[in-house]
Amino acid sequence: MKTTLIGTALFTLLFSGAASAQGAEIYKGTDLALGEKLIAEHRCVACHVSKVGGDGSAMYKPMGKINSAGLLRGMVEMCNTTMNLGMFPEEVSAVAAVLNRDHYKFK
Questions:
Q1: Alpha carbons 90 and 87: distance in angstroms, whole number
Q2: Residue ranges of the domains in the chain?
Q3: How far apart are alpha carbons 73 and 26 in whole angstroms?
Q4: Residue 41 contacts by C-beta under 8 Å, 6 or more apart in sequence?
Q5: In the chain, which ranges are E strands?
Q6: What mean pLDDT comes out for the span 53-79?
Q7: The whole model's pTM is what?
Q8: Cα-atom radius of gyration of the chain, to the nearest Å?
Q9: Which of 19, 45, 57, 95 has the most CB atoms within 10 Å of its CB?
Q10: Is residue 75 within 8 Å of residue 7, measured between CB atoms?
Q11: What three-state secondary structure class fits 87?
């Protein structure tokens, strides 16, 4: 757990400057149907439930850590890497776009 917290803090520190300047235009043209399919295939909700309990939705607003579209995409990339999901960049963007549409609503 300590390693995960350190990794998350390092990730946030490294990417907060560049990523926070990006708006939801980074999701323009993404395949939302693909994002929905990948979320289901990779069982993202089940993983979130195992980490935060309940229905897993508490994962989507973790103490203000994710406050831009760029940071959201970066967090999905971190899950992709950590979980060894093998998603391509356009797939990571598709998943992030769905999360933005359904939970974050960055403009």
A1: 8
A2: 2-104
A3: 9
A4: none
A5: none
A6: 87
A7: 0.77
A8: 13
A9: 95
A10: no
A11: coil
